[in-house]
TrEMBL record:
Cited PANTHER family: BLL4482 PROTEIN-RELATED, CYTOCHROME C DOMAIN-CONTAINING PROTEIN
Keyword Magnesium among UniProt keywords: no
All copies of domain Cytochrome c, residue ranges: 72-157, 182-267
One Pfam family it belongs to: SoxA-TsdA_cyt-c
Keyword hit for Signal: yes
GO molecular function: electron transfer activity; heme binding; metal ion binding
Signal peptide start-end: 1-21
Protein's name in the database: Cytochrome c family protein
Chain segments carrying region Disordered: 306-326
Domain of life: Bacteria
Keywords, ordered alphabetically: Heme, Iron, Metal-binding, Signal
Protein backbone atom coordinates (compact mmCIF):
# COMPACT_ATOMS: atom_id res chain seq x y z
CA UNK A 1 0.00 0.00 0.00
CA UNK A 2 2.65 2.42 1.11
CA UNK A 3 4.75 1.71 -1.96
CA UNK A 4 1.80 2.08 -4.29
CA UNK A 5 0.85 5.40 -2.75
CA UNK A 6 4.28 6.90 -3.07
CA UNK A 7 4.94 5.55 -6.55
CA UNK A 8 1.71 7.03 -7.79
CA UNK A 9 2.39 10.23 -5.91
CA UNK A 10 5.75 10.83 -7.47
CA UNK A 11 4.64 9.65 -10.88
CA UNK A 12 1.82 12.12 -10.45
CA UNK A 13 4.25 14.86 -9.60
CA UNK A 14 6.29 14.25 -12.72
CA UNK A 15 3.36 14.03 -15.08
CA UNK A 16 0.84 16.32 -13.47
CA UNK A 17 -0.42 17.32 -10.08
CA UNK A 18 -3.71 15.54 -10.66
CA UNK A 19 -3.03 13.06 -7.88
CA UNK A 20 -3.11 15.88 -5.34
CA UNK A 21 -6.76 16.54 -5.94
CA UNK A 22 -7.65 12.86 -6.32
CA UNK A 23 -9.52 11.04 -3.59
CA UNK A 24 -7.28 9.23 -1.09
CA UNK A 25 -5.81 5.96 -2.37
CA UNK A 26 -5.86 4.12 0.98
CA UNK A 27 -8.83 3.41 3.23
CA UNK A 28 -9.45 6.27 5.59
CA UNK A 29 -10.72 6.22 9.14
CA UNK A 30 -12.79 9.34 9.58
CA UNK A 31 -14.94 10.05 12.64
CA UNK A 32 -18.59 8.97 12.59
CA UNK A 33 -21.35 11.52 12.25
CA UNK A 34 -23.40 11.98 15.41
CA UNK A 35 -27.06 11.23 15.60
CA UNK A 36 -29.22 14.17 14.55
CA UNK A 37 -26.45 15.93 12.65
CA UNK A 38 -27.09 17.48 9.27
CA UNK A 39 -24.75 15.92 6.72
CA UNK A 40 -24.35 17.85 3.49
CA UNK A 41 -23.41 16.73 0.01
CA UNK A 42 -22.02 19.84 -1.65
CA UNK A 43 -22.61 19.99 -5.41
CA UNK A 44 -19.77 19.32 -7.86
CA UNK A 45 -18.62 21.30 -10.89
CA UNK A 46 -20.30 18.65 -13.01
CA UNK A 47 -23.61 19.39 -11.25
CA UNK A 48 -23.03 23.07 -11.97
CA UNK A 49 -22.36 22.56 -15.66
CA UNK A 50 -25.34 20.21 -16.04
CA UNK A 51 -27.80 22.45 -14.22
CA UNK A 52 -30.33 24.26 -16.37
CA UNK A 53 -31.64 26.18 -13.34
CA UNK A 54 -28.51 28.28 -12.86
CA UNK A 55 -28.15 31.27 -15.17
CA UNK A 56 -25.05 31.06 -17.41
CA UNK A 57 -23.86 34.40 -16.00
CA UNK A 58 -24.08 33.03 -12.47
CA UNK A 59 -22.21 29.89 -13.57
CA UNK A 60 -19.38 32.12 -14.74
CA UNK A 61 -19.24 33.92 -11.40
CA UNK A 62 -19.28 30.66 -9.40
CA UNK A 63 -16.52 29.21 -11.58
CA UNK A 64 -14.50 32.38 -11.07
CA UNK A 65 -14.91 32.00 -7.31
CA UNK A 66 -13.89 28.37 -7.51
CA UNK A 67 -10.80 29.29 -9.51
CA UNK A 68 -9.89 31.90 -6.88
CA UNK A 69 -10.34 29.28 -4.16
CA UNK A 70 -8.24 26.62 -5.89
CA UNK A 71 -5.55 28.92 -7.24
CA UNK A 72 -5.44 31.81 -4.83
CA UNK A 73 -1.76 32.24 -5.71
CA UNK A 74 -2.87 34.16 -8.83
CA UNK A 75 -3.38 37.04 -6.35
CA UNK A 76 0.08 36.79 -4.86
CA UNK A 77 1.17 40.24 -3.76
CA UNK A 78 -2.38 41.54 -4.01
CA UNK A 79 -4.58 39.57 -1.61
CA UNK A 80 -2.13 36.80 -0.67
CA UNK A 81 1.37 37.16 0.73
CA UNK A 82 2.22 33.55 1.54
CA UNK A 83 2.31 30.22 -0.33
CA UNK A 84 -1.25 29.17 0.49
CA UNK A 85 -4.29 28.55 -1.62
CA UNK A 86 -7.67 28.32 0.09
CA UNK A 87 -7.75 24.64 -0.82
CA UNK A 88 -4.45 24.02 1.03
CA UNK A 89 -6.49 23.66 4.22
CA UNK A 90 -10.04 23.38 2.86
CA UNK A 91 -9.31 20.26 0.88
CA UNK A 92 -11.48 18.70 -1.80
CA UNK A 93 -12.35 22.14 -3.26
CA UNK A 94 -13.72 23.28 0.10
CA UNK A 95 -16.34 20.53 -0.09
CA UNK A 96 -14.78 17.79 2.03
CA UNK A 97 -16.16 16.93 5.46
CA UNK A 98 -13.59 16.98 8.30
CA UNK A 99 -11.49 19.40 6.24
CA UNK A 100 -13.52 22.47 7.25
CA UNK A 101 -15.91 22.51 4.31
CA UNK A 102 -16.55 26.20 3.70
CA UNK A 103 -20.27 26.15 2.82
CA UNK A 104 -21.53 26.30 6.47
CA UNK A 105 -20.43 29.94 6.59
CA UNK A 106 -23.09 30.63 3.94
CA UNK A 107 -25.90 29.12 6.03
CA UNK A 108 -24.86 30.10 9.58
CA UNK A 109 -23.88 33.77 9.07
CA UNK A 110 -24.57 36.53 9.92
CA UNK A 111 -23.77 35.50 13.47
CA UNK A 112 -21.68 36.57 16.44
CA UNK A 113 -18.09 35.35 16.20
CA UNK A 114 -15.96 34.95 19.30
CA UNK A 115 -12.71 35.65 17.44
CA UNK A 116 -13.58 39.29 16.75
CA UNK A 117 -16.45 39.75 19.20
CA UNK A 118 -19.04 41.04 16.77
CA UNK A 119 -21.59 39.87 14.21
CA UNK A 120 -19.88 38.72 11.00
CA UNK A 121 -21.18 38.40 7.46
CA UNK A 122 -20.10 35.73 4.98
CA UNK A 123 -17.85 38.31 3.30
CA UNK A 124 -16.20 39.06 6.62
CA UNK A 125 -15.62 35.35 7.32
CA UNK A 126 -13.90 34.99 3.96
CA UNK A 127 -11.92 38.15 4.74
CA UNK A 128 -10.77 36.52 7.97
CA UNK A 129 -9.06 33.65 6.17
CA UNK A 130 -7.42 36.13 3.75
CA UNK A 131 -6.12 38.19 6.67
CA UNK A 132 -4.75 35.36 8.81
CA UNK A 133 -4.44 32.06 6.91
CA UNK A 134 -3.26 33.72 3.68
CA UNK A 135 -1.27 36.39 5.56
CA UNK A 136 -2.89 38.92 3.25
CA UNK A 137 -5.76 41.29 2.77
CA UNK A 138 -9.21 40.46 1.39
CA UNK A 139 -10.76 41.62 -1.87
CA UNK A 140 -12.85 44.71 -1.07
CA UNK A 141 -16.34 44.04 0.24
CA UNK A 142 -18.77 44.28 -2.65
CA UNK A 143 -16.03 43.96 -5.30
CA UNK A 144 -16.30 41.56 -8.27
CA UNK A 145 -13.68 39.29 -6.69
CA UNK A 146 -15.54 39.18 -3.36
CA UNK A 147 -18.82 38.53 -5.17
CA UNK A 148 -17.22 35.56 -6.93
CA UNK A 149 -15.95 34.12 -3.64
CA UNK A 150 -19.34 34.56 -1.98
CA UNK A 151 -21.11 32.98 -4.96
CA UNK A 152 -18.85 29.94 -4.75
CA UNK A 153 -19.52 29.48 -1.01
CA UNK A 154 -23.27 29.94 -1.37
CA UNK A 155 -23.53 27.58 -4.33
CA UNK A 156 -21.65 24.90 -2.35
CA UNK A 157 -24.35 25.28 0.33
CA UNK A 158 -27.14 24.47 -2.16
CA UNK A 159 -29.93 22.61 -0.37
CA UNK A 160 -28.52 23.04 3.15
CA UNK A 161 -30.91 24.34 5.82
CA UNK A 162 -30.43 27.96 6.99
CA UNK A 163 -29.11 28.44 10.52
CA UNK A 164 -28.79 24.71 11.15
CA UNK A 165 -25.69 24.55 13.33
CA UNK A 166 -25.52 20.87 14.17
CA UNK A 167 -23.46 20.01 11.12
CA UNK A 168 -21.54 16.75 10.67
CA UNK A 169 -17.92 17.07 9.53
CA UNK A 170 -17.77 20.84 10.04
CA UNK A 171 -14.56 22.58 11.04
CA UNK A 172 -11.40 21.02 12.37
CA UNK A 173 -12.08 20.33 16.01
CA UNK A 174 -13.38 16.84 16.47
CA UNK A 175 -10.43 15.81 18.69
CA UNK A 176 -11.69 18.36 21.20
CA UNK A 177 -9.75 21.10 22.96
CA UNK A 178 -8.45 18.99 25.84
CA UNK A 179 -4.81 18.50 24.93
CA UNK A 180 -2.67 15.60 26.10
CA UNK A 181 0.79 16.22 27.53
CA UNK A 182 2.76 17.74 24.68
CA UNK A 183 6.41 17.10 24.00
CA UNK A 184 8.36 19.03 21.34
CA UNK A 185 10.74 16.17 20.57
CA UNK A 186 7.98 13.61 20.18
CA UNK A 187 6.29 15.95 17.73
CA UNK A 188 9.55 16.39 15.87
CA UNK A 189 9.93 12.61 15.54
CA UNK A 190 6.40 12.27 14.11
CA UNK A 191 7.19 15.11 11.70
CA UNK A 192 10.44 13.61 10.48
CA UNK A 193 8.87 10.25 9.87
CA UNK A 194 5.56 11.28 8.29
CA UNK A 195 5.65 14.82 7.00
CA UNK A 196 9.12 16.04 6.06
CA UNK A 197 9.09 14.07 2.79
CA UNK A 198 6.54 16.52 1.40
CA UNK A 199 6.65 19.59 3.63
CA UNK A 200 10.47 19.70 3.86
CA UNK A 201 12.93 19.38 6.73
CA UNK A 202 12.32 22.99 7.72
CA UNK A 203 8.60 23.07 7.07
CA UNK A 204 9.27 25.17 3.99
CA UNK A 205 7.12 23.06 1.63
CA UNK A 206 8.04 22.32 -1.97
CA UNK A 207 7.78 24.21 -5.22
CA UNK A 208 7.92 22.94 -8.78
CA UNK A 209 8.26 25.30 -11.75
CA UNK A 210 7.49 28.22 -9.47
CA UNK A 211 4.26 26.63 -8.25
CA UNK A 212 3.56 25.51 -4.71
CA UNK A 213 3.15 21.74 -4.70
CA UNK A 214 3.38 21.15 -0.95
CA UNK A 215 2.53 24.20 1.14
CA UNK A 216 4.84 25.34 3.95
CA UNK A 217 3.91 24.63 7.57
CA UNK A 218 5.95 27.39 9.14
CA UNK A 219 8.24 30.29 8.26
CA UNK A 220 7.56 33.44 6.25
CA UNK A 221 5.50 31.73 3.54
CA UNK A 222 3.07 30.02 5.92
CA UNK A 223 -0.05 31.12 7.80
CA UNK A 224 0.50 33.88 10.37
CA UNK A 225 0.24 33.84 14.18
CA UNK A 226 -3.39 34.94 14.07
CA UNK A 227 -4.57 32.05 11.87
CA UNK A 228 -6.95 29.42 13.25
CA UNK A 229 -4.44 26.72 12.30
CA UNK A 230 -2.00 28.02 14.94
CA UNK A 231 -4.38 26.68 17.60
CA UNK A 232 -2.87 23.34 18.44
CA UNK A 233 -6.26 21.61 18.75
CA UNK A 234 -7.32 22.88 15.31
CA UNK A 235 -4.13 21.71 13.63
CA UNK A 236 -4.32 18.36 15.47
CA UNK A 237 -7.80 17.61 14.11
CA UNK A 238 -6.92 18.83 10.62
CA UNK A 239 -3.84 16.62 10.59
CA UNK A 240 -5.60 13.60 12.08
CA UNK A 241 -8.27 13.62 9.37
CA UNK A 242 -6.33 14.88 6.36
CA UNK A 243 -2.61 14.19 6.72
CA UNK A 244 -0.32 12.63 5.66
CA UNK A 245 -1.82 13.34 2.25
CA UNK A 246 -3.41 10.14 0.93
CA UNK A 247 -3.37 8.47 4.37
CA UNK A 248 -5.80 10.46 6.49
CA UNK A 249 -6.68 8.85 9.82
CA UNK A 250 -3.44 6.86 9.92
CA UNK A 251 -1.78 8.78 12.78
CA UNK A 252 -2.88 8.07 16.34
CA UNK A 253 -4.66 10.93 18.10
CA UNK A 254 -1.57 11.45 20.21
CA UNK A 255 0.71 11.61 17.17
CA UNK A 256 -1.59 14.21 15.59
CA UNK A 257 -1.46 16.35 18.75
CA UNK A 258 2.31 16.06 19.08
CA UNK A 259 3.04 17.00 15.48
CA UNK A 260 0.49 19.84 15.59
CA UNK A 261 2.29 21.20 18.64
CA UNK A 262 5.64 20.83 16.89
CA UNK A 263 4.71 22.75 13.74
CA UNK A 264 3.01 25.43 15.82
CA UNK A 265 6.13 25.82 17.97
CA UNK A 266 7.99 27.29 14.98
CA UNK A 267 8.14 30.93 13.89
CA UNK A 268 5.75 32.46 11.38
CA UNK A 269 4.62 35.98 10.38
CA UNK A 270 3.29 38.25 13.10
CA UNK A 271 -0.37 38.22 14.19
CA UNK A 272 -2.02 41.19 12.40
CA UNK A 273 -3.59 42.10 15.76
CA UNK A 274 -0.10 42.66 17.26
CA UNK A 275 0.00 45.59 19.67
CA UNK A 276 3.79 45.94 19.56
CA UNK A 277 4.25 43.58 22.50
CA UNK A 278 3.79 39.85 22.11
CA UNK A 279 2.86 39.13 25.73
CA UNK A 280 0.31 41.94 25.71
CA UNK A 281 -1.13 40.69 22.41
CA UNK A 282 -1.39 37.17 23.79
CA UNK A 283 -3.23 38.46 26.86
CA UNK A 284 -5.54 40.69 24.82
CA UNK A 285 -6.59 37.77 22.61
CA UNK A 286 -6.19 35.05 25.22
CA UNK A 287 -9.50 33.51 24.26
CA UNK A 288 -7.74 32.56 21.01
CA UNK A 289 -4.11 32.41 22.07
CA UNK A 290 -4.66 30.14 25.07
CA UNK A 291 -4.77 27.45 22.37
CA UNK A 292 -1.55 28.60 20.64
CA UNK A 293 2.13 28.76 21.64
CA UNK A 294 2.35 32.44 20.64
CA UNK A 295 3.94 34.54 23.37
CA UNK A 296 5.22 31.48 25.22
CA UNK A 297 8.79 30.29 25.55
CA UNK A 298 9.66 27.16 23.57
CA UNK A 299 13.23 25.84 23.66
CA UNK A 300 14.37 29.06 25.29
CA UNK A 301 12.79 31.31 22.63
CA UNK A 302 9.81 33.63 23.05
CA UNK A 303 7.60 32.82 20.07
CA UNK A 304 6.15 35.73 18.10
CA UNK A 305 8.54 38.28 19.60
CA UNK A 306 9.36 40.08 16.33
CA UNK A 307 8.04 42.57 13.79
CA UNK A 308 8.30 40.20 10.84
CA UNK A 309 5.18 40.22 8.65
CA UNK A 310 6.63 37.83 6.03
CA UNK A 311 6.49 39.21 2.49
CA UNK A 312 3.45 41.33 3.41
CA UNK A 313 4.40 45.03 3.49
CA UNK A 314 1.91 45.88 6.24
CA UNK A 315 0.77 44.39 9.54
CA UNK A 316 -2.99 44.76 9.66
CA UNK A 317 -5.42 44.84 6.72
CA UNK A 318 -8.01 47.64 6.87
CA UNK A 319 -10.81 45.07 6.73
CA UNK A 320 -10.04 43.98 10.30
CA UNK A 321 -12.06 46.47 12.28
CA UNK A 322 -14.51 46.28 15.14
CA UNK A 323 -18.20 46.72 14.42
CA UNK A 324 -20.77 47.73 17.01
CA UNK A 325 -24.39 48.74 16.92
CA UNK A 326 -24.42 50.88 20.04
C1 LIG B 1 -3.87 27.69 6.81
C2 LIG B 1 -5.15 27.05 6.65
C3 LIG B 1 -6.28 27.79 5.99
C4 LIG B 1 -6.30 28.40 4.76
C5 LIG B 1 -5.17 28.50 3.77
C6 LIG B 1 -7.63 28.94 4.59
N1 LIG B 1 -8.39 28.65 5.68
FE1 LIG B 1 -10.38 29.01 5.91
N2 LIG B 1 -10.35 28.16 7.74
C7 LIG B 1 -9.23 27.69 8.37
C8 LIG B 1 -9.57 27.33 9.73
C9 LIG B 1 -8.60 26.77 10.77
C10 LIG B 1 -10.94 27.56 9.89
C11 LIG B 1 -11.78 27.32 11.14
C12 LIG B 1 -12.19 25.87 11.18
C13 LIG B 1 -12.80 25.47 12.50
O1 LIG B 1 -13.64 26.22 13.01
O2 LIG B 1 -12.45 24.40 13.01
C14 LIG B 1 -11.41 28.10 8.62
C15 LIG B 1 -12.71 28.44 8.36
C16 LIG B 1 -13.17 28.97 7.17
C17 LIG B 1 -14.55 29.27 6.88
C18 LIG B 1 -15.72 29.02 7.82
C19 LIG B 1 -16.25 27.60 7.69
C20 LIG B 1 -17.40 27.33 8.62
O3 LIG B 1 -17.57 26.18 9.02
O4 LIG B 1 -18.14 28.26 8.95
C21 LIG B 1 -14.59 29.81 5.62
C22 LIG B 1 -15.80 30.30 4.87
C23 LIG B 1 -13.23 29.82 5.13
N3 LIG B 1 -12.39 29.31 6.08
C24 LIG B 1 -12.86 30.30 3.89
C25 LIG B 1 -11.54 30.34 3.43
C26 LIG B 1 -11.15 30.96 2.19
C27 LIG B 1 -12.09 31.63 1.22
C28 LIG B 1 -9.80 30.81 2.09
C29 LIG B 1 -8.89 31.37 1.03
C30 LIG B 1 -8.96 32.80 0.85
C31 LIG B 1 -9.35 30.07 3.25
N4 LIG B 1 -10.43 29.83 4.05
C32 LIG B 1 -8.04 29.67 3.49
C33 LIG B 1 -7.98 27.54 7.82
C34 LIG B 1 -7.60 27.97 6.56
C1 LIG C 1 2.40 13.13 0.36
C2 LIG C 1 2.69 14.50 0.66
C3 LIG C 1 2.27 15.01 2.05
C4 LIG C 1 2.58 14.47 3.26
C5 LIG C 1 3.37 13.20 3.55
C6 LIG C 1 2.01 15.35 4.25
N1 LIG C 1 1.38 16.39 3.65
FE1 LIG C 1 0.47 17.95 4.60
N2 LIG C 1 -0.16 18.67 2.80
C7 LIG C 1 0.15 18.13 1.57
C8 LIG C 1 -0.54 18.88 0.55
C9 LIG C 1 -0.46 18.67 -0.95
C10 LIG C 1 -1.29 19.88 1.22
C11 LIG C 1 -2.23 20.88 0.59
C12 LIG C 1 -3.55 20.22 0.22
C13 LIG C 1 -4.08 20.63 -1.11
O1 LIG C 1 -3.62 21.65 -1.65
O2 LIG C 1 -4.92 19.88 -1.64
C14 LIG C 1 -1.01 19.71 2.63
C15 LIG C 1 -1.52 20.55 3.62
C16 LIG C 1 -1.14 20.53 4.95
C17 LIG C 1 -1.49 21.50 5.94
C18 LIG C 1 -2.36 22.73 5.72
C19 LIG C 1 -1.69 23.76 4.85
C20 LIG C 1 -0.41 24.31 5.43
O3 LIG C 1 0.59 24.38 4.68
O4 LIG C 1 -0.37 24.66 6.62
C21 LIG C 1 -0.95 21.10 7.12
C22 LIG C 1 -1.05 21.80 8.46
C23 LIG C 1 -0.27 19.86 6.86
N3 LIG C 1 -0.39 19.54 5.53
C24 LIG C 1 0.40 19.12 7.82
C25 LIG C 1 0.99 17.89 7.57
C26 LIG C 1 1.57 17.05 8.61
C27 LIG C 1 1.66 17.43 10.08
C28 LIG C 1 2.02 15.92 7.99
C29 LIG C 1 2.62 14.71 8.64
C30 LIG C 1 1.80 14.04 9.63
C31 LIG C 1 1.74 16.07 6.57
N4 LIG C 1 1.13 17.25 6.36
C32 LIG C 1 2.12 15.14 5.62
C33 LIG C 1 0.99 17.06 1.33
C34 LIG C 1 1.50 16.23 2.31
Amino acid sequence: MKIRLFTSLFAGLLVSNAVLSAEPAVPVKLPDFKEGQYVHQAPTVEDLMNSDKIHPELKKVILRGRDMFMNTQQFRGEYVFNDMNCKSCHMGEGRRNWSAPVWPAATTLPDFRGKNQHVNSLEERIAGCFSFSMNGTPPAYGSDDMLAMVAYHKWLATGAPMYEKNIGGRGFSHLGKEKPELDYNRGKAVYTENCAICHGDNGQGQHKDGEVVFPPLWGDASYNWGAGMTRVFTAASFIKNNMPLGKPGSLTDDEAWQVANYINSQERPQDPRYTGDVKETREKYLNFHKHTNYGTVVNGKLLGDHENTGSKPFLKPDALRPRTFD
